[in-house]
Amino acid sequence: MNWERVRIFLEIARSGQILKAAKRLRLNHATVARQLTALEESLKVKLLERHTSGCTLTSAGETLVAAAERAESEFLKVGASIGGASKAISGTVRVGAPDGLGNYFLADRLGALAARHPGLVIQLVPLPRTFSLSRREADIAITLDRPKQGRLIVTKLTDYTLSVYAAESYLSRSGSIRSQSDLAGRLFITHVEDFVYSNALDYASALGRLMSRRYECGSVVAQMEAVRSGHGIGILHDYAARRYPELKRLLPDVRFIRSYWLTSHPDTHETRRVQEVHRFIAASVKGARSCFELN
Predict the structure, then answer these.
(1) Are the beta carbons of 168 and 246 closer than 8 angstroms?
(2) Nearest to 57 by CA among 9, 23, 20
(3) What confidence score (pLDDT) does residue 240 get?
(4) Count of alpha carbons within 13 angstroms of residue 92, beta-carbon side
(5) What pLDDT is attached to residue 221?
(6) Rounded to whole angstroms, how far apart are CA atoms 81 and 271?
(7) In terms of C-beta density within 10 A (0-12 exposed, 13-18 middle, 19 or more buried), how is residue 252 classed?
(8) Residue 250: pLDDT above 70?
(9) Cβ atoms 162, 203 nearer than 8 A
(10) Three-class SS of the chain
(11) Which of 77-86, 116-125, 155-164, 278-287 has the lowest mean pLDDT?
């Protein structure tokens, strides 16, 4: 069996589209389609049903995916063992993270790590509702909840806090806020309920009953920018809000504590590039622990 064809098939199965797989593999769309057809012809079985919207696995395809992922894992382990003596770190590591941590902490630091290793490609991606480390949708994931299922390596990264903020321009225009009752009638800048993929994100309900007017944003960055611009009041990550002196923390007795969990898969964790990025993230957070917890 031609491993290169199997590798291409595996990427199609993971991405669900030939075009998307071609982009990830950096191959021509026609080449990927041709290799899939050649694999199916050599095995004399249909592996994927092709539709205008994408591809779905047949029962034979599901069987081959499981076998191919086991083989891929072995290749990764052998590669890590053989390449362990090399000082250079190369390859691609995909890090999935919540957009608050990704944009306001990891983006800068992982950029510095990538700059130090010319052969290393780090992909920092937003964490979706569902993802699979076993399917290589990420090599390292930082989650808001401790994963309870799957064969995973999980460590607690840190606790972090969130507080209520408004911009000085908003307070000077709309009046000061000294108690929760002062929130009545204010515009609440918060998340979009449909995008909440974890109970850890449901901190807005505590104040939402006081502020009936809402401006809902699909990202932490959008919420931050709306609050900084003086449009209303929001619950923001303290480690991110510290960057902006125009933001004023309100209601000191209202604080929310959440956690980040660092997760990787045993099959890829031992590869040198993943180990290096994993260690770097853990050390970076540990070195900045005081930034994550508001005293």
Answers:
(1) yes
(2) 9
(3) 95
(4) 9
(5) 95
(6) 8
(7) exposed
(8) yes
(9) yes
(10) CCHHHHHHHHHHHHHCCHHHHHHHHCCCHHHHHHHHHHHHHHHCCCCEEEECCEEEECHHHHHHHHHHHHHHHHHHHHHHHHHHHCCCCCEEEEEEECHHHHHHHHHHHHHHHHHHCCCEEEEEEECCCCCCCCCCCCCEEEECCCCCCCCCEEEEEEEEEEEEEEEHHHHHHHCCCCCHHHHCCCEEEEECHHHCCCHHHCCCHHHHCCCCEEEEECCHHHHHHHHHCCCCEEEEEHHHHCCCCCEEEEEEEEEEEEEEEEEECHHHHCCHHHHHHHHHHHHHHHHCHHHHCCC
(11) 77-86
Q: Which residue has the tokens 């998340």?
A: 191
Q: Which residues have C-beta within 8 Å of that of residue 240, sequence separation ≥ 6?
A: 100, 103, 104, 105, 220, 224
Residue 132 has what pLDDT?
66
pLDDT digits (tens, 9 = 90+) for 71-84: 776 666 566 555 55
pLDDT-derived band at 283 (thresholds 50, 70, 90) equals: very high
Cα–Cα distance for residue pair 22/89, rounded to 1 Å: 25
pTM over 0.85? The answer is no
- Is residue 171 a contact partner of residue 248, using CB atoms and an 8 Å limit? yes
